[in-house]
Amino acid sequence: MDGAEVLAEIKKLHKLNNRRPVKRDSNSLYQATRKFYGTWNNALRVAGYYVKDFQNPNIPKISPELAYFVGLIITDGHLRYDKKSRSYSISIYNSYPKETKTIIKLIKQLFNYSPTIRKRKYGFSKSINNEIIISSKKLVLFLHQTFGIPLGAKSKIIQLPVIFAKDDELFYNFLRGVIDGDGHIRRKGISISSQSETFLKQIKNKLADLSFIRIENARTTNSLLIERQNDMRQLYAKLYGSPNFFYNRKKDAYDNVLKSFLNK
Q: How far apart, in whole angstroms, are the C-alpha atoms of residue 237 and residue 155?
């Protein structure tokens, strides 16, 4: 394979996957790009793709905004390490354009980083989502080491980060991220779904001041349920007292539930 053949293979891979190729798609092609062009990105540039310059993201201080971001990662995201390409990345998935913009704005504020966006199938329904990608080893390791977020598959083993269990402000910003990611707000109340029963029990223990919370166990997932009116009102005040980031769709649903209580 020569340099021209490398470029042709990149374009074939694009056509095959119906998207811009990434280096983890083919390790042999990745190695060939390094041989003939020095780096994967150099080969993409020669092939006619726009490639962003290298970004060096900031490691942020612990903050309510970072706690919210961690909530999104734990529910609707992943930390990845690809052994073949030795690359690290963070992904968050979302199918709503306004919420995708919110996530991008949050990433820029926290890390001074402009993420890559690509379309891909995600979740049980395999619906098309926006994958919001941060390619940074130091951020992956920061989130992994600071908050205990596992690398790779995590659904069954996630836990409430210790730092959030000890700080109420951080916890409720984190919980808002969890609800935005894997929460359902309906007339009966709030449900948070997770395959990790331990995670839900830790949240339940942290919400001990609410009058009644229960966990339902099913074959494929577990759900934490908050259904009493007083609990819903009390939790709302803590989640939406003065947040900088949230999904309007979820907040509007919560507002409607509280309004329905007044009409009963």
A: 29
Residues in the chain: 264
Checking if the pLDDT of 123 tops 60, the result is: no
Helix (H, G, I), strand (E, B) or coil at 64: helix
Instruction: Average the pLDDT over each of 120-124, 181-185, 258-262 and give the range with the smallest value.
Output: 120-124
What tokens does 212 get? 């009644």
Closest to 238 measured CA to CA, from 221, 226, 249: 226
Q: Going by DSSP bridges, is the β-strand pair 116-122/127-134 parallel, antiparallel, or unpaired?
A: antiparallel
- CA–CA separation, 186 vs 243, rounded Å? 21
Per-residue pLDDT tens for 31-68?
A: 999 989 888 888 998 999 887 767 899 999 999 999 99
pLDDT digits (tens, 9 = 90+) for 252-262: 999 999 998 77
At 131, list the tokens: 């994958």
CA distances from 171 to 137, 152, 161, 163, 236 (A): 26, 24, 9, 8, 14
Long-range contacts of 241-244, Cβ-Cβ distance < 8 Å, separation of 24 or more? 243/64, 243/68, 243/173, 243/176, 244/64, 244/65
